Amino acid sequence: MEVVIAPEAQLAALAADAVERLLRVKPAAVLGLATGSSPLRVYDELARRHTENGLSFAAARGFMLDEYVGLPADHPERYRTVIEREIASRVDFAPGAVQGPDGLAEDLAAACATYEAAIADAGGVDLQILGIGTDGHIGFNEPGSSLASRTRIKTLTRQTREDNARFFGGDLEAVPHHCLTQGLGTIMSARHLVLLATGRHKAEAVHQLVEGPVSAMWPATIMQHHPHATVLVDDAAAGRLQLADYFRQTYADKPAWQTI
Ligand code: GLP
Fold this sequence. Notes:
By secondary structure, the chain is α/β, with parallel strands linked by helices. The chain contains eight helices and ten strands. It binds 2-amino-2-deoxy-6-O-phosphono-alpha-D-glucopyranose.
């Protein structure tokens, strides 16, 4: 696991560099797209590079991490809508190239299985962008999630619903209780994981992710088993890392030819 501690704009540029490098060598790459506020600067940077430098997503595919159950198709916080707004519509993905789990399906379990199959059919995810919840969830894999789980229905914790209420005008009751999420096993199948976290409220989750024992109590800790995981954090989110000095030194000494 590589941990980079840097200002937020630099983190977004590093993540965008990784996506750009991938698309240049593999235009038909499969990208894993996360919602939440953490990836927004990355999406801004990718949209900028598309407009200004011609970075193309025309042959690429995108798979979302998760989706709320039951939000109407036109709801502004439905994750399909959010991803369309924040990245898909700003670059040149082909129509239908970005997919998410169907939170409006009549048979939700079947929709989860269909989604797993679609990811597999696409050849798996090359680069997965991730955020992390304050309780250590990735996707919507709340504490207690099976470390081997695949896409399935989950019930959100009160903490996550409170954290996300800000997207629903501060109204906790408006935040759905259920979601569909790629499982931890699904996420671990991606070839490169790039997680972004900023702010002091993420410091404990980041500490557990990087330095805690691998445990379903902090689901993101499963990333310690991934052969290519990159954790991009600002000073505040790194505030509880015991190895912060080592990570800073390592990044300062990183050879120019070595990418994340
Ligand atoms: C949400 C999303 C996650 C996201 C996390 C952190 O609930 N399902 O994919 O990583 O919570 O969100 P934020 O980046 O807004 O802090």
